[in-house]
Amino acid sequence: MKIFLLTSHLKERDGASKAIINFAKGIKTLSNNEPVIVSLSVSLDTSKLGNIEVVNLGKSLGIFSSFRILLGSSSPLRPFRKYMLEDGKFIVATDDLVPLSEFKNDLVYWSQGVLISVFFWEPFYRKNKLISVLGSPFLLHNTIKFSNFVRKYKIVLANSKTSAVYVSLFYNRPPSSVVYPPLDTDFFKPSKSKEKFVVAILKRGYPSHIELLSKLAEKVKMKVIGYKIPNADYLEKVSDEELRDLYSSALVTLYPVDFEYFGYIPVESMASGTPVIAFRYSGGPSETIIDGRCGWLASDEEEFYRLTMKIYREGYSEDVNIQSRKRAEEFSIQNQTKLLLSILDKLKV
């Protein structure tokens, strides 16, 4: 049987895309089902995916189409209808495709967050003032429309407990299960002895406490990806292999992001045997990091600074490396795909 993974985009260094690709690989390896990724747009080299079928609809969402979806219109998503007529099971795997439930019954929605929550995020307002001004008056309309769309899904899943809370709150449909984004633990694994430096991997557009990192960089050797920090080594255009080696050789990974629904960076670091320092209120990272066992969770900037300095000066026991890897294996492609397949087995088509 075919299992269709429906997404709005496939692109490099994108967490949503990575999760979908890893699920497809897991379905291919662990079952007799045939995964098919159907995407509105594709901007990565699909030849690297082996014999996984990828359908590129060539219809990337522009600002106007995205705004229509926010208002609850399903018309920009009509290119999917042709493929939704085929026999198989269908997973809607990005949140801007929620209106697809208008076209077909028995869909599965795997939520990676709540689309409209971006309008409550102050950095989004600063960078997208026009969209914010246009969209804000329609938030109530959007919430009602999307709640109706989500209600039509046969099964609703979430990519973290944090996402599940938001889906329950905004869409009034508690997810039945949490299936975490799958991690390639065969690729990310301990491979180097530890060196005395910390690595900070920052995401563009996410508040990342730059002043805190700048202060730390005055005291510790720091390597940074994603943003230039004074006194730190800035690494640009890092390959996946270089990133893996960076994780595994670092003493600790700093992840000072205020909030995200899941977050691959902490689990990739832990899979590489390197613990992570993050914030206790950070959502997904505060779920995946077990405080004191495979990393540390800080309540504020002061504690984040203090924890980093303590780890840098005193180190930690080898058991932390072992526990970090052990924790990351819970999010492996094998474990999370098996969970997803067990849920899909209950879905009649």
UniProtKB/TrEMBL annotation:
<dbReference type="Pfam" id="PF00534">
    <property type="entry name" value="Glycos_transf_1"/>
</dbReference>
<dbReference type="InterPro" id="IPR027054">
    <property type="entry name" value="ALG2"/>
</dbReference>
<dbReference type="InterPro" id="IPR001296">
    <property type="entry name" value="Glyco_trans_1"/>
</dbReference>
<protein>
    <submittedName>
        <fullName>Glycosyl transferase group 1</fullName>
    </submittedName>
</protein>
<keyword id="KW-0808">Transferase</keyword>
<feature type="domain" description="Glycosyl transferase family 1">
    <location>
        <begin position="231"/>
        <end position="307"/>
    </location>
</feature>
<dbReference type="GO" id="GO:0004378">
    <property type="term" value="F:GDP-Man:Man(1)GlcNAc(2)-PP-Dol alpha-1,3-mannosyltransferase activity"/>
</dbReference>
